[in-house]
Amino acid sequence: MSESTTATSPATLLPTPGESARLWNVVAMLWLVAVMVVAGHQWRFWHEARLNTDVLALLPQDEQAPEVAAATRTLAERASRQVLVMVGAGDWSSAQRAAAAWRDALQRTQAPLRAAPVDARSLAAAVDFYRPWRDRLLTPAQREQLARTPPTGLAQEALGVLYQPSTGRLSQWTQDPLNLWQSWWSARAAESRARPRDGLLWLSHEGLEWVVLPYEITGKAFAMNGDAVYGDALRQARDAALKAVPQARTLEAGLPLHAEAAAVQASREVNTIGWGSLAAVLLLVWLAFRSLRPILLVGVSLAVGTAVALSVTAWVFGEVHLLTLVFGASLVGVAEDYGIHYFASRQGAPGAPPRPLMRQLFPGLVLALATSVIAYLTLGLAPFPGLRQMAVFSAVGLLAAFITVVCWFPWLDRGVVPRSRFADGIAASLARWPTLRPTRGLAWVLAGIALVGAGGLARLHTSDDIRGLQSSPPALVQAQVEVSRALGMPSAGQFYLVRGASVQQVLEREEALKARLAPLVAAGALGGFSAVSDWVPSIAQQRADAQLTQHVESAVLARVNAVLGEKLARPAFTGTPLTLQAWLDHPMSAPARGLWLGETGPQTASVVMLRGLHGPAQLPRLAAAADGLDGVRWVDKASEVSLLLGRYRTAMTWLLLAGYLAVLGALVWRYGGHAWRAWLPTAIASALTVAALGWLGQPFQLFNVLALVLLLGIGVDYGIFLMEHPGDGRAWLAVVLGAASTWLAFGLLALSSTPALRAFGLTLMLGIALVWALSPWLRVTQPAHGASA
């Protein structure tokens, strides 16, 4: 490309100096009115508490299978409100004492946890509900037994049942001569290992007697305010239980506990890293300018940018996610470069009036804004609700901060910016920084760098496993595993989605699936499963079971009468089948009601949950169980989200490359053949950062790509400032201060123990340092065509 290429300068779009003052005042006042409107909206926004703290809202939605997303949301919403506590001791009385102390202590904490009632009468109500349909409720084993055992053998069993004590029977002998209903209820009870005992839920496990205490949170699920509300309350309750029974054990599990632990950890890191970096940035600015005015005005620009971004995001999306605010406010912090650049120029030209100086800086600031907005809006192309909000928030906030700097700084800035030895030293260092010249030594250096970079890229590996992003404390993870194993809890991450055109078709397809899963349970590959059809068989199955029991039990009673010389008769049962709606309307369906999804679009759906998964090795066999079954889909949500993250990582990588080309086009429009000097440092830094990740053994994932997108928006600004003011040490001062503050704000996230934040921060820590080091090597010493002097 010819370096003589010229382009229209943004400066030509500005009014003439004679019109500038009046127009500047009008625009500044209009912007003041707009900010006042935003201030009014902010007052209402914070009083209405429209911040969304639901972590699930950040998860990507599988646009190709909305019914899977709906099922996952339903299951996750249910799990997100449940907390399970187990208090164990060597004997039942000790376990009761420890549990009583635990409950009393928790109640005193006034934590937002509500105990789920344990009512032994619910079993009697459930038995009464099912009684009219006793004849059509059979387990698979019972069907096989009735079909294969001769009537004579069954009659002997019936006589044995007749002569046994009737304690604990659920019906009269003539209504159930083979005691089939008792076995059916035992199968239903096997879905939960906890049993009512003395008004509590009891479980015997690994040599201890346990009291199971189910709780439900009463506040918002996944409230991420950084306070350990649940953790502190559970800790006090645990201490009280151990004080009452020193040998007792307690286990706490539940999704809210993991979410809170992550929020507490993130809040602690944000406070430590965030406030520390802020203090360091303020110190840098003070050392450079030795005045509070630059600090205050830059703070005003960032505050206005954040407020406008928050209001616009709320208007566009109807709500703002808490993480959008946290991350977006940090991204808007990049706008400090504009204010720092202005005050660095003011310090170098103390006699220049503010407005003419801003007019001179305006073209470079516009280009820096445009390239950053292009990079940030790239985030919005990914189908992540959180990223789309973040893209709008960051782009709007950056634009608002820019307008504040351009319109208000010349208006509010009075006096001079004092010079300082610190600032003068940095500004003078640019002259001592060499520029690259084509020499044989340089060629060898570049070849060595290329070789090292190629080695790092060859060692780079990708990892999109969502499980690798978990950061729950090990003790909490272990407790979750123990509780799940003890209670035989179903897995919310793997399940079968069953769909059909009608309720009956869904139930029939569930029954076909259960027939395939039964051998896996028998082989020990699976602990069990839970389905709606366990409680409400399809009408076809009910009809077949009713005919089977009527035929077999009538024959059995005939043989018993022949032996006893009696005339015992089997009572008539209702001919009306049990319906799903009748079951859903009854309170006893509450524990399993979440398995029924109902209408999801044009179809009806349910889920079949699995219990006792013993590791990922069984997942292929479980997936194969759904093969060939119409309307049945195996869902492994962790694997699906991981695949989705991988797909988006690939897409975002291509978008990043497209962003580099778009930014290069904007630079060519401004600088012509010199555009590569502002663009190449960030491109090289990105490539070397990725290579460094390979040498460090860090996996390449979506959060690294997102950091590289931000690096593009940030790093190109440094090249632009040096191109707009070649040889100007004050432009170099702005670059150094901007790079240092951004490095402190983002790079220190590499110290985070949260995997996503660590990957994000490490990428920017390496990338920003490299861009800062490379930009002056490729600077121009004479004004580029189309650039201001």
Write the layout of secondary structure elements.
Blueprint: H1 17-48, E1 51-52, H2 66-79, E2 82-89, H3 92-109, E3 113-115, H4 121-130, H5 140-148, H6 151-163, H7 180-189, E4 195-197, E5 200-205, E6 208-217, H8 229-244, E7 249-253, H9 255-289, H10 292-317, E8 320-321, H11 322-332, H12 336-348, H13 354-377, H14 385-412, H15 421-432, H16 440-459, H17 474-487, E9 490-500, H18 503-522, E10 528-530, H19 539-564, H20 580-585, H21 590-593, E11 596-600, E12 603-611, H22 619-624, E13 632-636, H23 637-671, H24 675-696, H25 702-724, H26 729-746, H27 755-774
Parallel strand pairs: 1-8
Antiparallel strand pairs: 2-6, 2-7, 3-6, 4-5, 5-6, 9-12, 9-13, 10-12, 11-12
Helix pairs in contact: 1-10, 1-14, 3-8, 6-19, 9-26, 10-11, 10-12, 10-14, 11-14, 12-13, 12-14, 12-26, 13-14, 13-23, 13-25, 15-26, 16-24, 23-24, 23-25, 24-25, 24-27, 25-26, 25-27, 26-27
Give a concise summary.
With 789 residues, this protein is α+β, with helices and mostly antiparallel strands.
Description:
- The protein has about 800 residues and is α+β, with helices and mostly antiparallel strands.
- It has 27 helices and 13 strands.
- Strands 2, 3, 4, 5, 6 and 7 form a six-stranded antiparallel beta sheet that branches. Strands 9, 10, 11, 12 and 13 form a five-stranded antiparallel beta sheet that branches. A two-stranded parallel sheet has the order 1-8.
- A hairpin with a 2-residue loop joins β5 and β6.
- α12 runs antiparallel to α26, α13 packs antiparallel against α25 and α24 runs antiparallel to α25.
- The N terminus and C terminus are likely disordered.
